[in-house]
Write a structure and sequence with these properties.
Elements lengths: L9 H35 L7 H30 L6 H30 L5 H41 L1
Helix pairs in contact: 1-2, 2-3, 3-4
Length: about 160
């Protein structure tokens, strides 16, 4: 049996890791720029200046969760390439990924509440928030299905090792 056939090509792994790294740098840059941008928006829209603090905190938290998700995906890609994905530790990384998706959906709901209480939203913005929340919940559900597949594969690999 050729084990290298199941391993992704090194070029694909490197490209994926580089892209995840670039996205992480963009996320860190966004966290650095968000306070200045929010101050500028608060100056240009003084009627909504009281929303600056809560929305800035939500935006930074949402971006941070994105960075955590990128890190978990990068770890899983590396484990797949290193052929160590069929270990219980991989399930933990997937659990962290599911947790970040659920927390991100909760932050969107919190943002909806903050914007609604500040009477700053529009029906289109509410629609965008609902769609983003549903998308994150769907991703969490898909990830949970794939998690069960991973757990099944781990159990089969363990059983095979016992037989051999």
């Amino acid at each position: 049996m050729n084990l290298d056939a199941s391993r992704p090509p090194l070029a694909l792994v490197v490209t994926t890791e580089v892209l995840l790294g670039v996205l992480s740098l963009v996320g860190l840059g966004a966290i650095a720029l968000l306070p200045g941008v929010s101050a500028s928006v608060a100056d240009s829209l003084p009627e909504y200046a009281n929303l600056r603090g809560p929305l800035l905190a939500l935006a930074i938290a949402f971006t941070f969760l994105g960075l955590v998700a990128l890190a978990m995906v990068a770890l899983l890609v590396q484990r797949i390439y290193g052929e160590t994905v069929l270990e219980q530790r991989s399930v933990m990384w997937v659990d962290v990924l599911v947790g970040t998706l659920v927390c991100a959906a909760a932050l969107i709901v919190a943002g909806f509440v903050v914007i609604s209480n500040g009477q700053a939203g529009s029906p289109f913005l509410a629609l965008i928030q609902v769609m983003a929340c549903l998308g994150l919940v769907a991703l969490a559900c898909i990830t949970l299905v794939l998690r069960s597949l991973l757990k099944s594969a781990i159990a089969m690999a363990t059983e095979l090792e016992e037989v051999v």
